Each structure stands twice: as structure tokens, then as C-alpha cells.
Amino acid sequence: MRWLLAGLLFALAVSLAIGTAALRASNTCQRHQVEQAYRQVGGRIVELRRLSVRRLEVASTEQLAVRHWRALRAEFDRSVEWRQ
Amino acid sequence: MMRGELARVRLAFAGLGIVPVFLAGWLGWLQVVQAGEIERGGRAPLRLVPETADRQAQRSEALPAPRGTIVDRSGALLALDCESYEVRANLLVPRDERASAARFRLWLLQFADRVATALANDDEFTDREAARKEHRERLERAVARAFAFAELPAEGALPDKHPVRADLLLANGVDSLAVIEALQRLVAQKGYKHVALDFLRSFQRRYPERELTHGLVGHVRTSWQETASGAKKLVTQGACGLETFRVLAAESSTSRGFLRDGVGRNYFLSPVLDMPQPNVLHTTIDLELQGIAIRELKAQATLAPQTGKGALPKWGAMVLVEIATGDVMAAAAWHRDEDNLENAAFTPYQTLYEPGSIVKPLVLAYAYEAGVLDWGHEFDCAPGSSEYRERIAGLGRRRPVRDDHDCSRLTPHGILVNSSNIGAAYAGLLLSREQWADYMDFYGLRSSLGLAMPSEGRAGTNPRSFAADVPLRSFRANSAISFSFGYEMQATAMHIARAYLRLFRGRSAELRLCRGVEVDGRYQGVPQAADTGPRFRPDVVDAVRAAMVDVVSNDPHATGVHMHARMLKELGIDLHGVIGGKTGTAVSSVGVKGGGSVEMRNASFVGFLPAEQPRWLAVCVLQRDSRGTFYGGSYAAPPVVRLLLQCQQLEQRRYWQQEASNGADGQVGSGLVTPGDSGWGRGAPGTTR
Hints:
- The complex is a heterodimer of chains A (84) and B (689).
- Chain A is mainly α and 84 residues long.
- Helix content of chain A is 95%, strand content 0%.
- Chain A has two helices and no strands.
- The radius of gyration of chain A is 34 Å and the shape is rod-shaped.
- In chain A, 5% of the residues are buried.
- Chain B is an alpha+beta fold.
- The radius of gyration of chain B is 36 Å and the shape is elongated.
- The model of chain B is unreliable at 668-675 and 682-689 (pLDDT under 50).
- At the A-B interface, α1 of A face α1, β5, α5, β7 and β11 of B.
């Protein structure tokens, strides 16, 4: 009986050790994934800023005026072609 | 339990018991027998303490602080730091690829080619193939240098101790998600498991309206600098313009910790908690008006050759100022011989010129205020008149004073409308030498602008003008008369704008380019001086203003008559009573390198709007280094008038459209929570900053 209890306690200790190691490994794995997600978010923040500045450049008064004139000219050309 | 069975159980438990005994023994060996240290060749012994284990796993990435953001008076972004990555690779050539020198070289060149392909995977490139080629050539050079290709044999085995690992800079300023993901996909491939990429955080300076802000906003320069500890680090600082303001300098950087295992996998430890936010410099510039000023100046400067009336000017400058605050709303520069505007002088505050007749209202206003000039008195401004002979020729001046057209009897009002040099000289001779010195100081015509911008031109007179050993008679015959119509002195366009600002607001009125700064999210406005010092009597200002209003009229002798007629024809607007102004034309000899001199012609114009209660004033200067007619009224006035009219239209449009404008505290919205803050430095949700 004594040996049986000792064996069970040993098995419990081993189980606890394995369980702890598994939990830590799982924790590490999750943290690795969080780190990857964190860095991906960082990459998207960089992209967001790049696109927002690009939009600002495209939407400047000069650029909008150029695009407006281009559209008007295209419309004018279309109407001339249609008349011909 | 049987005896044999008992023995087996004891054996099994004894075997299991050996494990902790072994571990305890190993611990004792390392910590006691080896005294807690491991020898490392050529380096300090590695101490076997828990901190060492932690240190080997702990990593931190530097998070440089961004430079401040610059916005215009409506919050439009002029300059900001955008997050980007510096991508470095820790490259270990796999063992199989080290079999021969040729294979070694081929593997590295293939890697360079694939990285170049990934770096060119940016939709901003119009020609991706060209970009890829450029990256490939650069990376091939970097790889060849890092892995000593020069020492590699063409064939055969790799030499012993040839470098097989290196740290390479793959690219700077990577800010495209497509590129980042392409690089990550590349190193995730089977053949590149020994390649570790590091995306180091950095910033790229961006200027959304670069063509409009070269001179005013300026640019930055990044260079290696030595720190107090002797280490070197890259430092970015302003090289010119508003970028040199200290408030924009990046604050101390911070870092973020994470963990890394033996094969380079990163583990999350914590987000960034104390990332410094960029300061914001709120300028007085109005981006829309800035664009108009640049276009108008360029159009006028390039007009002369198009119409067959002379050559291109050498340079031009235009400034728009809000009179109530002294805010510089727009400042434009134009150069004939300088394509790279980054290298060019910013003429509005850096280029000096002889202002000419544009200063006459300033002289007459000062003389009237000083009580030496009667505004109703008539002067005989005819060139051969007895008054001329007595008051000017009698002084012994070598060069006679002439007018562009012959004038007769003129009041000070008429002197300004006709821009009579003789009349201005009469008024100037009423002032004493001390009063002339005070005149210069009152209008700031021999001091810097005080804008704290680098390489500001400092206005001034000829060094001998006020020399104590110059006899009074000589001073009156030369300097006093020359000062009266803007010669023997030099100023920038902004000096002239400030001088007129002082005419309207007082001796201490100053121009300003900065409305306030935002530090840690708190806005601090630049305080405006409530008291702008001694100012002219209202009747003095009104008298001069009325004369300047009549300069822009259909009076055939008014110097603004051509511009008046032209605007009536072009815009259908009778400018008389709408805009006031004064023309200036000067011809100066400027010494050139190697001896000799060139005759420079300066055409300038100062205008204000509305004529009755001026709110804005603008100054334009164009300088030409060739002969031919070049009058302020014809060349410098039109862009000023158009700019002022568009300024008024814009004001009305904004009023009706309720466009974004600054609030009572001076703060403006810019579309982002804080200009320049993308959220990169924010902590994870739930964390506090």
C-alpha cells in the first residue's frame, strides 16, 4: 500500500510537471501568435498612415482641380464626337 | 509482494530517483565547481545567474520618437513623420549551400533577387521592373560586400573561415503593407529558415504639399552624430525653414521589450506604454493662399517672354500678411536659374534688394507724424524749379534727382500718387539725421525679421550712411535723399511687409509664422502683443492710405494706372477704392564675382485690401538682370492684386461654406485625433498611457 501511494504521488508529480510544461508551452505558443498579430497590426498602421498621406496628396486643391478639368475636357470631347 | 517483485520495484524507483540526483549534481557542477561562470574565448566569462538566462531571451526594439508635425492655419498637414520600417536581415547561408563557392554565391544572389522582387511589390511604383532592377543591383553589391565575394574563388570549395553569416540592411523606409507581407512570405519559405528579418521601426518625413512649401517649411537632414558616451547615432534635424524649430525635434526615444527563443521566434511581452507623441507646430500659413501666391508669382514671372516684352526676371518673391495679427499667410519664391527648389534661397526673407519708391509712403508718413511735413503744403517738383535748385541741387549732390515723368506742384498726396522722387526728396530733407535713424528703426529697416528662421536676410543701409565722421551736409546731399526713394538701403520682401504692418499697427508690430504649438496634446498659443508700441496718429495713416488708394486709379499720372486699366479689362473690376498700393522701381548696380557689376532692375508693389479698412497686405518683388522697361506697376502689381482679390474671395467662400477654421483657443481639427499620431505608439486596448 505504501509503495502504491508513493507510485501514485510520483505519477501525480510527473503529471503536474508535464501539465505545467504543456501549459507553459501553450502559453509561449499563444504569446508567439500575439506577437505576430501585434507586428501585423504595426504593419497595417504603417500602411494606414501611408495611404492617408497619399489620399491627402491626391485630394489637394490642385489635384482636384486637375481632375475636374480632365473630366470636363473628356466630357467636352465626348460631346464633340457625339455631334460629329 | 514477492521478493523478486520488490527488487524490481526498488530498482525502478531507484532509476527514477537517479534523475533528480543527476540534476542536483549538474547544478552543483555548474554553480559550485565551475563557480557560476563559463569561459568565452576573447570575451568576459558568462556568469550563470538567472539574469543571464533572462537576458538571453529578452530583446527590445528601439522606438524612435517622431519629429513634430507642421500644420497650416486650418490644420492641413504640411510636414509629418510617417511610420516606416528599416528592414534588416540576419543571414546564415545553409550548410548545403556552402558546398562550393559557386553554389554559395548563387544562393546569395538568388536571395538578393527575391528580396528585390519583394521590395518592388509596391503599387506606388509606376515602373516596378525598373524599381526591381535598382533594388537588385543595390542588394547584390551589399551581399558581395558582406560575404566577401572578392575573396571567393570562381570554382571549388569555399575557403576556410569565409564569412557565412552577415547582418544586411535590406531597405529603408518600407511603408507598404504589400512589401512587408512579401518579405515575410519570402523568409517563411523552406529554403530561408536561416534568414531572420528584423523590421526596425523608424520614420519617414513626408510633405503632402511639397511644391508649395519648399522654402517656408524647409526640409530635414539625417546624419551620424556622436553622443556623449562616444557612440554614434543617426540624428534627424531641420536643415532650413520651419523644420529648424526646436519644438519639432524628436523627444527621447523609447523601447518595447519582447522575448525571443534560440531560433529567433519572438514572443509577446508587452505593448508600448509610453511612446512620445509628436509635437505640433501650428503655422500661420494658409495652404490654399500659398498655392495661389506661388501660381500667381510664377505666372507673372514667366509672362514677359511669352508676350515678347523682355527676358525672364532673375528671381521673384511675394508675401501675404494679415494686418490684425501680423500672420504671414503666404510666401512664395520663384527662381529663373534654379530647378531644385530645395537648394534655392527662399527669396521672401533671404534675398535683399533695393526697394526703391515702394518706401515713399513710409517716409512721408514718418515726416508727417514727426510734424515736419504739412500734408497740405505744395512742393514744386519740376526738375528745373527754383525750389529744386535751392533745396536739392544746392546741397552739392553729384547725381541729379529725376522723376519718371515731369511733375509740377504736388502735395504729399500727389507726390505719392505720381511717385515723384523730387517730392519725396523734399520730404526726406525735412528729417534730421537722428530722425532718419529712428525712421529705420521704427520700420525695422536695419534689423532682422526675428522669425527665427535660418539665413534670414538682415535689412540695412550702406555702412557709411550713418557713420559719425560723415558731415551732415554730405548725409543730407546723399543718404537722406537716397533713403527718400528707397536707395542706399537693402531689405527683403518680408521687411517691406513688416514696415507697412508697422505703418498700420505700430512700432512693435512683428510678422509671425507660428501661431502656437501643441505639446503632449496641450495647445499653447503664441501670445500676441496687445501693445504694438507707439503708432502713428489715425489722421497720418488715413492720409497715406488715401494717397495709396489713389495710386491704383485711372489718374493718368498715377503709377498704378496701367495695372488699373489691365484689371478692368481682364477681371472687369474697377480697382479704385478697392485696393490701395504703391509701386516701386529701382535700378541698382550689383557687383559680381570676378569684378565688374550688373545692372539690376527691381520691380515691386505693395498692396492692401480692403482700401478703407485694410485687412491684408501683400508685397511682390521681381528682379531682372537685363535692360528694358521693368516697372513695379506693370510687373509686380498684377500678382499682388490677384492674390488679394482671391484672398477676399476665399474668406467669403469659407464664411458661407463654414469650412474648417481655427477655434477660439487657436486649435484646429486636422482629420486625425492628433496630427501626426497614427496610433502606432498607442498601447493595446485596456492599457493606460
